[in-house]
Specification:
By secondary structure, the protein is an alpha+beta fold. The chain has a domain of 63 residues. The chain has a three-stranded antiparallel β-sheet with strand order 1-2-3. The chain starts with 8 loop residues before the first helix and ends in a 12-residue tail after the last helix.
C-alpha cells in the first residue's frame, strides 16, 4: 500500500513527468512486445513494461512462476540498443526528466 498519495496538481504533474514523460515506444525485434523507453544518458535507461508487454514476452513469461524479477529480457535490451543506435530513442534528459 502506498504510504504517500499525491493530491497536489503540481505533485501529480511531477509524478507524470518522472514516470512517463518522453517515453518512446520500442518493440522487441523478436517477440514484438512493446515497452516505453527513456534514456537520460548513455548509462541510464528507463524501461516501462505494461502488463500486456510482460505477458507477451516469452522470457518474462518463462520466469513468471517465481519471485518478481528485476532482470530484463536480453532480447528487449538488444532491441532498445538497436533503436538507440538508429536514433529512434533520444538520449539526454530534458528539464530534469
Amino acid at each position: 500500500m502506498a504510504s504517500f498519495v499525491p493530491l497536489s496538481p503540481d505533485t501529480l504533474e511531477d509524478q507524470r513527468l518522472y514516470t512517463s514523460a518522453r517515453l518512446t515506444e520500442v518493440a522487441c525485434l523478436d517477440c514484438l512486445a512493446t515497452v516505453g523507453v527513456k534514456k537520460n544518458s548513455e548509462h541510464h535507461t528507463s524501461i516501462q513494461w505494461s502488463t500486456e508487454a510482460r505477458a507477451h514476452c516469452p522470457e518474462l513469461t518463462r520466469r513468471a512462476g517465481g519471485r518478481e524479477s528485476h532482470a530484463g529480457c536480453p532480447r528487449m535490451l538488444a532491441s532498445i540498443e538497436t533503436a538507440v543506435r538508429e536514433g529512434a530513442v533520444p538520449v539526454g534528459a530534458e528539464d530534469g526528466y
